Amino acid sequence: MTLFLNQKIILVTGGSSGVGRATAIALARHGATVVIADIDRAGGASTVASIRSAGGIAEFVATDMRDASAVASLIAGIAASHGRLDGAFNNAGILEGTFTAFTELDEDVWNRVIDINLKGVWLCMKHEIPLMLRQGSGTIVNHASIAGLYGNRIVGPAYIASKHGVVGITRAAALEYADRGLRINAVCPGIIDETVMSEAIFGSDRAREAQVKALYPAGRVGSLEEVAETVAWLFSDATSFITGHALPIDGGLLAQ
Ligand SMILES: NC(=O)c1ccc[n+]([C@@H]2O[C@H](COP(=O)([O-])OP(=O)(O)OC[C@H]3O[C@@H](n4cnc5c(N)ncnc54)[C@H](O)[C@@H]3O)[C@@H](O)[C@H]2O)c1
Questions:
Q1: pLDDT above 70 (res 166)
Q2: Which of 51, 65, 134, 146 holds its CA 20 to 30 A away from the CA of 154?
Q3: Is pLDDT at 1 greater than 70 in this prediction?
């Protein structure tokens, strides 16, 4: 194991659970100091405890990504205590409105999903970028989804719209800051096993699970570790010329 993220300060939003938690743990294992921000305090404390018990460095800051002043104070706090921010994984998100017809989608669901998944990522970037520009370097990885790259009838219109939006603002920001030392990419996983989202999609319907998994050329869906390690790699100096990408992590699904 090489410590290829040694000395880097990396923020993980939504790090109290699921992919964010697995990624925070992987980043710390690769040497990063990880700041976890989430609304779930108990989950955040548990991620921090896991990292510290393995000898890593992590801290938790309770933050609601929909709240502009909370996001601003999160980034100001990182600047004050660490003096810099090398990387940010803007990952916090929700899935609501699965298998819902366009005309049946509730406006509250639309607002919640867009608020957290899209506005939250934009707010994070709005406050992360100025700090990174002051340093002259920084890497952002936004968590989109394959639902940001193609339409499907599984995750519902609000989630599809939010993730297409995340891909769009990733590309726009990457272009704007490519010549000022910043790299901005998105990861676009297919369904990841053993998450609240795979649970929301499969439930206890084994026939549906088999049907969805059969869509994947790899013959299976992804794992937490497979996303976590891809995100860690995007933060590494090995990817210093990669920006503006929306990278599928999908076992070949979108190659069809
Ligand atoms: N699980 C999958 O199959 C899958 C596939 C593709 C993309 N994604 C994306 O991965 C990300 C994480 O999903 P997950 O499966 O780990 O879900 P999860 O529910 O396990 O984790 C999401 C985390 O975000 C936090 N969160 C929610 N709203 C928040 C807010 N307003 N402010 C701060 N934190 C908030 C939650 O507390 C939770 O800790 C999401 O953006 C999701 O769209 C997941």
A1: yes
A2: 65
A3: no
